[in-house]
Amino acid sequence: MKNSSMTVTGKRWAAIGAAVAVAIGGGALALVSAADGGTPSSFVPITPCRLLDTRSTSPVGPRSTPITAGESLSVQVTGSNGSCVIPSSATAIVINVTAVGPTAASFITLFPADVSLPNASNLNFTAGQSPAPNLVTVSLSAGGAIKIFNESGNVNVIGDIAGYYQPDNGTGNAGAACSINGLSGVIVNGFDYDNNVSSKCFTSLVTTLAGSTGGFSDTAPFQFDDPTGVAVDGVGNIYVADRLNNRIRKITPTGIVSTLAGQTAAGSANLTGALASFNFPEGVAVDNKGNVYVADTANFLIRKITPLGLVSTLAGSTLSAGFQDATGTSALFASPRGLAVDTAGNVYVADQNNNRIRKITPAGVVTTLAGQTASGSADGTGAAAQFTDPRGVAVDSAGNVYVADAGNNLIRKVTAAGVVTTLAGSTAGFLDGTGAGAQFNAPFGVAVDASGNVYVTDQGNARIRKVTAAGVVTTLAGTSPASYADGVGTDARFSNPRGIAIDTSGTIYIGDVTNDRVRRIN
């Protein structure tokens, strides 16, 4: 967004909080007036609802008459629309803007209705784009109306109001603590417009990246069927083990879904793209070269997919489930679930029914890092340690492997030498706390960030948890009972969250299985 071309005065924006702020993929926002001591604002999420088109009683969205090039459309944001209520105290609203079927590259600008037309556009949509939501914050004008101005091609626009800002007594200093709905965060300052700073209070804003109802579709609205495992590469592409569709899907950072490999029919064919086949794949991991590894669970195989979609078998045999440390197809697994890959290309496997954590070299040599056939929860080294139904694994830069030990309701840590300790958890239940003072309920997936924090899909509790390196457990997002809702922190809802991954910017991705969606936490 080119802020310097706005044709309004600084004092007007100081009074209402900030200029039009664009936050694509960011956390919840706190709008702050920095230079003149204005009152900071806090974000209040609401059940998403449509903007009201003042030209008719229809909500803004796909229509026979789109917003034409050069047209300025006024929309109403005050009052109620279903469950949507914007109070008179609100200073700005947050809108998820989606363009549907632009006839050409389209530039959409949103701004208060009583402000003259800006010279710059703030959202750029390509021809035919649908859907591509962009989280935008727009200040409110008198009467609660805003304008949407369209340049270039004709375009249909959907505007879902996700929340609003209201004044509070918080702080806007960069690095200061902040809180939204009781969830702690840290303020990071964004752009400065006429001496007003838009700051992000980074907490836990949960949104839906892709997916709708269960099924299969690589065209909008995209569909998954039990998206179980997730992984993210260095440029922000997300890979999904779409379990019941027997496919490995790819999602771009803008939410466009395609099939990397696999087909509806179950099988174990090592071919390319849609000619290859899987049998209930559950885990995925991606290396620094863009190769994707798959826990092909019902085939008892670990598969490899090149960036061009060529599928091969790294290790395991389809002949039978079993346990055997060996090389390639001489090795045996029993219900391999979670996967992780380190910087050297070694793949780590949560071998559920063998109660072991296995390691596979790039050459396909399989060894046991820790665990034994007998289930249990013993800490120890190598085969002296015990797990019960391990599901998810993650590996940090030092080679430590973290395990979601589902049957024991524990989060375990395994060093590169195979030394197993318990990081957090005890009996089944829900409790934030430290070490054994915390409780999980069938934790499924784990991911680890650069600071050693471990993120857990606490499946039975329908929550996403965070465990520090010292074993301090907190709830990041979600609550019981299981359901579906986007929102901030515990206002969000999940249903059987399983796979989890984190990118270099700290964005978390979740395979929300029963909701058939891939969710995102900023």
Task: Looking at this protein, list some descriptive labels.
522 residues; mainly beta; 45% strand
Structure notes:
The chain is mainly β. Helices cover 1% and strands 45% of the residues. The chain is built from 1 helix and 43 strands. Strands 1-11-8-13-3 form a 5-stranded antiparallel sheet, with no helix packed on it. Strand 38 and strand 39 (472-478) form a beta hairpin. The protein is globular.
Radius of gyration based on Cα positions: 24 Å
Give the terminus-to-terminus CA distance. Answer: 21 Å
| Biggest β-sheet strands, sense, barrel | 5 strands, antiparallel
State the helical fraction.
Answer: under 10%
Detail the poorly predicted runs: 1-39, 188-199
DSSP strand count: 43
Tell me briefly what this model is.
With 522 residues, the chain is an all-beta fold.
Give a topology summary.
Elements: H1 10-16, E1 21-22, E2 29-32, E3 41-50, E4 52-53, E5 72-76, E6 79-81, E7 84-86, E8 92-100, E9 106-112, E10 123-125, E11 134-139, E12 145-152, E13 156-167, E14 177-180, E15 183-193, E16 196-202, E17 205-211, E18 227-232, E19 238-242, E20 247-251, E21 257-262, E22 281-286, E23 292-296, E24 301-305, E25 311-316, E26 336-341, E27 347-351, E28 356-360, E29 366-371, E30 380-381, E31 390-395, E32 401-405, E33 410-414, E34 419-425, E35 433-434, E36 443-448, E37 454-458, E38 463-467, E39 472-478, E40 487-488, E41 497-502, E42 508-512, E43 517-521
Antiparallel strand pairs: 1-11, 2-16, 3-13, 4-5, 5-12, 6-7, 8-11, 8-13, 9-10, 9-12, 14-15, 15-16, 17-40, 17-43, 18-19, 19-20, 20-21, 22-23, 23-24, 24-25, 26-27, 27-28, 28-29, 30-34, 31-32, 32-33, 33-34, 35-39, 36-37, 37-38, 38-39, 41-42, 42-43
